[in-house]
From TrEMBL:
Keyword 4Fe-4S: no
Record protein name field: Ribosomal RNA-processing protein 42
Single GO cellular component term: nucleolus
Coiled coil stretches, renumbered: none
Subcellular location: Cytoplasm; Nucleus, Nucleolus
Keywords: Cytoplasm, Exonuclease, Exosome, Hydrolase, Nuclease
Chain segments annotated as transmembrane: none
Manganese among keywords: no
Domain of life, source organism: Eukaryota
Domain Exoribonuclease phosphorolytic: 79-139
Length: 166
């Protein structure tokens, strides 16, 4: 991601996220993706100026301005929303509980960009096989679900980087 690069091949922001899950009622990946989008949309990166070496053999230096008003918002080009689909008795269910997850024959986590509606990732969860012939309809339903989620006021604030802390 070019926006995180301060000096090509030398300095770049590296982002690590640790998550502690205290309990889960189902749809864990969906909830985590939304939480991470919320956190990153509120993240401010300090302003960093790269000071080139004045003499040969001298190291490049960084000057950090840690004032919040000087910082920039974390660059989020996409709004990755996870929509998990579970197959139970030949039916595809969304927004399943943890009990329904345990009964699922197969599960698929579809990642949709909430800004564009593009499917940007797929992850097969658990045991079982996903019916490939049902994939096109399933993906369209996931895109529609993500679009509806992106239309929620909270998601719109995430996209605009204007989320307010309570």
């Amino acid at each position: 991601m070019d926006a995180l690069c301060l000096l090509p091949k030398v300095f770049a922001w590296e982002v690590h996220v640790d998550v502690l899950v205290l309990s889960s009622g189902g749809n864990l990946l969906d909830s985590l993706a939304l939480a991470l989008c919320a956190v990153l949309s509120e993240t401010l990166l300090p302003k960093v100026d790269v000071i080139e070496a004045m003499e040969e053999g001298e190291d490049v230096q960084l000057k950090v301005d840690d004032r919040p008003e000087a910082g920039m918002r974390f660059p989020m080009k996409q709004l990755p929303l996870c929509v998990t689909v579970a197959e139970i008795s030949g039916k595809f269910l969304m927004d399943v509980t943890s009990e329904e997850e345990m009964c699922a024959e197969a599960m698929l986590c579809v990642v949709v960009d909430g800004k564009t509606g593009d499917v940007i990732g797929l992850h097969k969860l658990g045991r079982g096989l996903v019916d490939v012939s049902a994939m096109p309809a399933m993906l369209e339903r996931c895109r529609a679900t993500a679009a509806a989620l992106a239309q929620q006021p909270e998601a719109q604030q995430l996209q605009l980087g204007k989320r307010k802390m309570i």
